[in-house]
């Protein structure tokens, strides 16, 4: 029964990917990673330049999985209550309160996009992180639940002025940090400029088949995946060695160019991070029609689930993306399995 | 008539003088103290094998300290032949050349002497360059001293032997052995030394790299040998797969997984011929260690297949092309 369920959902998941890839071209890997995050039920940090199609990507996913899509822009004057409600004077001259982006879709909220989260103040981060962790919010003397919500947050990595960097503890709440870059293929770049179908996003999104998945069943199905995809003792040992290597790369002989490895890592991956890594790896194994996780499944999600969790010495923070990538590649090269 | 007495007396004195003068010339003088004279000899390099007519050259460097000085007239004269018990020695001084170098406290006399052998015999016989006696004196005084230059012993060989010779009788310790040409032996020795040196170098190479030839003893060759010694059961198969993984890692210089076989083959194109088997190996590893449901048909027992795979990889390692079906 569960085998059939797994197979059916896999078909749907691959169809969802295919549909999203129709409207967001040249982003096959981010689409696969977001699919994994959707089925692993993990929040995602998006990293990328402006105008690369992050919003389109998320709207396309929302259309495919169903449920509500909400978005908010991070600004320096954004306050926590702005996420919850709006106040305004109505035509009758009386004050009115309407639900903010978090409450607007109610329990059907499926995807919440926090654009440029690092422009918002820490108190906004605090509220958002709580909602991410507990999927509840107390407002208007009532407990609001968002059981199906996934948060996608974008960090503007280019501009640093008037921004509040997300601390490592907050970064750790996100399952993945997915880089979204302009596709390098020239034909795709040309198509993005000249193909008129990309000019109207609303119209473009309608090309995605609606409600391919049932968003309100994703939580229960995610459990089915985690319970049915096994991890052998050899793989557990391999994952453990990977974890140890993130904590003490020197012991595994890992080197990064122009970096004093003894001073680099202040903190390796967290237990939560390693748990999320294995959750994502299980989903990847399921998408590849396997019943057990193999090292390649871990490799497929290693950078995206671990890199943003590593805490480096402040002197290396400016180069963290490059260093984290090189260090994790070194770990994959150094740690053997079996 | 009687001769007058003074005449007799005069005749007697004259007779005495005639008799004793030569004797006075050979009179033995007191030997000079060694602190006034030192000598350095440069003798012929060999002391045997001289035949009649050969010349022996000898240089004596005589240092005479003041106040004594050498009486040059006492140096031996050319043509002088020593006698021993009335017999001529057969060694004649052929030439003499003396140089004097004066210093404030001493004078150095370099005397080059050339002797010639005028003697032969049926067997080798000892001979000697006699120690010449030179005389020294104090300037302005009649008192003289003598100094004996050390002699030099050598052997005179016969020119040839006529008739039957009893070697036992004729053997003489003074005759040096005839020299036999050793050129061939020396060449053989050099070749043998060269072979030995090469062998030692080869041994050093073998001991250092543990390989007989440059491409032997590689990671897969070792894995091939080790797998053959493992038990033919599940545990043995697991160990064998781990060994192959280690060999792959050793060759690649990094971990090799199923998803980076392409990178491995780009880095090590020598293994390109074994690509299908490498991919199969990763399926086998996946089945044994991670996902038992991975479909795989090796067509033979796991250990046998691993040995065959290692042999093929060993061939690649040695630059050969394996016969991979």
UniProtKB/TrEMBL annotation, chain A:
- What superkingdom heads the lineage? Bacteria
Describe the location of the ATPase AAA-3 domain by residue ranges.
43-176
An example Pfam family from this entry, by short name, is AAA_3
GO molecular function annotation: ATP binding; ATP hydrolysis activity
> Where in the numbering of this chain does the ChlI/MoxR AAA lid domain appear?
267-318
InterPro entries reported for this sequence? ATPase_AAA-3, CbbQ/NirQ/NorQ/GpvN, ChlI/MoxR_AAA_lid, ClpA/B, P-loop_NTPase
Q: Which CDD domains match?
A: AAA
- Please give the name of this protein: MoxR-like ATPase
Which organism does this record belong to? Methylophilus rhizosphaerae
From TrEMBL, chain B:
Asked whether the keyword Membrane is assigned, the reply is: yes
TM segments?
188-207
Give the range the annotation lists for the signal sequence.
1-25
Keywords, ordered alphabetically: Membrane, Signal, Transmembrane, Transmembrane helix
Spell out the protein name for this chain: MxaA protein
């Amino acid at each position: 029964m569960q085998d059939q369920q797994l197979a059916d959902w896999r078909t749907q998941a691959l169809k969802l990917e295919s549909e999203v890839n129709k409207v967001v071209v040249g982003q096959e890997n981010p689409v696969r990673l977001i699919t994994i995050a959707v089925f692993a039920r993990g929040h995602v940090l998006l990293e990328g330049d402006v105008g690369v199609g992050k919003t389109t990507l998320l709207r396309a996913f929302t259309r495919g999985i169903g449920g509500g899509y909400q978005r908010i822009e991070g600004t320096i004057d954004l306050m926590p209550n702005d996420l919850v409600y709006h106040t305004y004077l109505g035509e009758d001259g009386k004050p009115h309160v309407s639900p903010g982006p978090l409450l607007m879709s109610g329990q059907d909220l499926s995807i919440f996009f926090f654009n440029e989260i690092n422009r918002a103040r820490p108190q906004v981060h605090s509220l958002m992180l709580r909602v991410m962790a507990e999927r509840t919010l107390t407002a208007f003397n009532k407990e609001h639940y968002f059981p199906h919500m996934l948060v996608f947050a974008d960090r503007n990595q280019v501009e640093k002025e008037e921004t509040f960097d997300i601390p490592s503890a907050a970064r750790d709440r996100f399952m993945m940090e997915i880089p979204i870059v302009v596709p390098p293929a020239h034909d795709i770049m040309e198509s993005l400029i000249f193909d008129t179908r990309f000019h109207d996003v609303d119209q473009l999104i309608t090309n995605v088949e609606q409600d391919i998945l049932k968003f309100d069943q994703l939580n229960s199905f995610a459990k089915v995946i985690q319970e049915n995809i096994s991890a052998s003792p050899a793989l557990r040992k391999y994952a453990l060695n990977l974890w140890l290597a993130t904590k003490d790369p020197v012991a595994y002989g890992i080197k990064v160019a122009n970096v004093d490895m003894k001073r680099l890592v202040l903190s390796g991956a967290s237990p939560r991070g390693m748990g999320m890594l294995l959750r994502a790896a299980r989903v990847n194994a399921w998408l590849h029609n396997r019943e057990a996780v193999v090292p390649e499944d871990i490799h497929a999600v290693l950078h995206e689930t671990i890199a943003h969790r590593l805490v480096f010495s402040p002197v290396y923070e400016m180069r963290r993306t490059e260093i984290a990538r090189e260090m994790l590649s070194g770990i994959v090269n150094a740690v053997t399995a079996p | 008539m009687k001769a007058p007495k003074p005449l007799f007396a005069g005749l007697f004195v004259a007779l005495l003088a005639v008799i004793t003068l030569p004797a006075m010339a050979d009179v033995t003088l007191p030997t000079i103290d060694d602190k006034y004279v030192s000598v350095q000899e440069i003798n012929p390099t060999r002391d045997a094998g001289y035949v009649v007519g050969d010349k022996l050259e000898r240089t004596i460097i005589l240092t005479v300290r003041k106040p004594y000085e050498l009486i040059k007239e006492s140096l031996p004269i050319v043509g002088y032949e020593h006698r021993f018990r009335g017999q001529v020695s057969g060694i004649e001084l052929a030439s003499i050349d003396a140089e004097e170098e004066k210093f404030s406290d001493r004078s150095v006399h370099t005397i080059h002497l050339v002797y010639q052998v005028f003697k032969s015999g049926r067997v080798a016989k000892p001979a000697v360059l006699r120690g010449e006696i030179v005389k020294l004196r104090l300037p302005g005084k009649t008192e003289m001293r003598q100094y004996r230059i050390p002699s030099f012993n050598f052997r005179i060989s016969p020119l040839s032997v006529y008739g039957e010779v009893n070697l036992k009788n004729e053997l003489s310790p003074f005759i040096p052995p005839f020299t036999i040409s050793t050129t061939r032996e020396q060449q053989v020795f050099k070749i043998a030394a060269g072979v030995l040196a090469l062998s030692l170098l080869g041994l050093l190479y073998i001991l250092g790299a543990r390989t007989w030839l440059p491409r032997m003893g590689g990671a897969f060759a070792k894995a091939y040998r080790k797998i053959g010694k493992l038990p033919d059961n599940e545990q043995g198969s697991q160990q064998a797969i781990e060994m192959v993984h280690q060999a792959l890692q050793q060759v690649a210089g990094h971990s090799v997984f199923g998803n980076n076989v392409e990178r491995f083959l780009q880095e090590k194109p020598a293994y390109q011929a074994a690509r299908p088997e490498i991919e199969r190996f990763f399926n086998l590893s996946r089945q044994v260690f991670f996902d038992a449901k991975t479909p795989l048909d090796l067509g033979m027992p796991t250990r046998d297949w691993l040995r065959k795979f290692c042999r093929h990889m060993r061939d690649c390692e040695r630059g050969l092309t394996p016969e991979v079906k």
